[in-house]
Amino acid sequence: GWQSDREIEAHFDWYGATIEDRPERVVDRLSVAFCASMRPARPRHGYSEAFELVDASGTVTTVFIGGSNGAPHAVCSGQASDKFVAAVRRNWPSAHSVARMDSRIDFGGAESDSHTWDLLYPTVAAFAQERGLATSIHGDFLGSGDAGRTLYVGSPKSEVRLRLYEKSKEVRAHSHTGSGAVASDWVRIEVQVKPKGTARRSAATASALEVWGYSRWTQDLLAQLTTLDVPRTQITPGRQSDDERKFENLLRQYGPVMRRMTAVKGWDAVAARIERAVLTEEPRAC
Questions:
Q1: Are residues 161 and 132 both part of a single domain?
Q2: Which of 77-86, 103-112, 232-241 is least confident?
Q3: Whole domain around residue 149: which residue ranges?
Q4: What is the pLDDT of residue 69?
Q5: Count: domains in the chain
Q6: What value does the CA radius of gyration of the chain take, rounded to a whole number of Å?
Q7: Edge-to-edge, what's the strand order for the sheet holding 135-139?
Q8: Cα–Cα dist 113/62, whole Å
Q9: Are the CB atoms for 178 and 254 separated by under 8 Å?
C-alpha cells in the first residue's frame, strides 16, 4: 500500500441522518452538542422548514423538518462530521437511519511536493478501467494543474461513488490569502455511500473505515492502496418477507401519529398502549 496501516485514518466527511424524534428536540440536542446558535435556512427535498446550526467556525449542520417527509433530517459535512456522527449516535443510537455517508482518507501532506497525485491518479484510474467502472474528471487536467484536479469513479446515480482530488489546491482556492499553512502535497480520496431500505438502519453503526466495505470494488481498492481489509457490507438489503414489508409500511404511515402521541403522553405510555393492543386485547368482532 501507499501508506502503512498505522498511518491510515478514515474520517466521516458527510453524514445525512433521518432522526425519529420531535423536531424541536433534534435541534436542541444538536445545538447543545456543538454549542451552536440557530438561524433559518432554505428548505429542500420536500421539507417545509430548515434551520442551520452555527458556531464560531460557521454552519456545522442543517436540520430539515416538516413537509411530506415525516421525521426530521439532519446533515453535516466537512470537518465537523465526526463530531456530528458521535452526537447523533449518542442521542439516537437506535432511532436514526442513514441516507448518505461519506468517508475520507488523506494521503501525502508533506511540506514539499512528493508527487502523491502522480502516483495515486494512474493507480485509481487503471483500477477503474480494469473493473469497467464509469469515470469522469473535473478540473485543470490540460493546463498547469494549479486549479486542482478531481477523478470520479462510479456513476452519479450509483449507491457507491468515489472521488480522488487534490485537497491542498482546493483549500488554497477557497482561502482568503490563496496560500497560508497548507501542505503542498495533500491528496484526498472519498467514498460516498447511499444505503437502501433497511440497510439505512444498519448503517447507523458503521465506522468511517467500514464505509469502504459497502461495495466490493471500494473494498478491493482500499486494500490495494493501504493493505487494509475491511468487512464486506451489503448496501441493498435482502428480500423482505410480506410481514416485514407491511411492518415497515405501518411505521411510515403511523410514525407521525405515534410521535405526536409521544410528545403529549410520553413514550412509556404509548409503548404500554401498543403492547396492550398487540399482546393482550382480543380482536374486535366485525
A1: yes
A2: 232-241
A3: 1-8+108-197+208-233
A4: 82
A5: 2
A6: 22
A7: 37-40, 49-55, 58-65, 73-77, 10-19, 96-110, 185-193, 160-166, 149-153, 135-139
A8: 37
A9: no
Are residues 179 and 254 both part of a single domain?
no
This prediction's pTM = 0.78
How far, in Å, are 41, 109, 151, 241 from residue 140 at the CA level? 33, 20, 11, 50
Verify that 4 and 129 share a domain, yes or no. Answer: yes
Are 192 and 160 spatial neighbours (Cβ–Cβ below 8 Å)?
yes
Q: Which amino acid is at 80?
A: A
d(CA 119, CA 187): 10
The answer to the question of residue 191 being in a domain is: yes
Same domain, 258 and 215: no
Written as nine digits, the cell of 276 is 396492550
Could you tell me how many residues make up the chain? 286
What is the percentage of the chain residues whose pLDDT exceeds 90?
60
19-28, 35-44, 63-72: least confident range? 63-72
Cell triple for 70 = 415525516
pLDDT of 210 > 90? The answer is yes
Grid cell for residue 209: 473505515
Are 90 and 19 in contact, with CB atoms under 8 Å apart? no
pLDDT tens per residue, range 84-126: 999 999 999 999 999 999 999 999 865 545 689 999 999 999 9
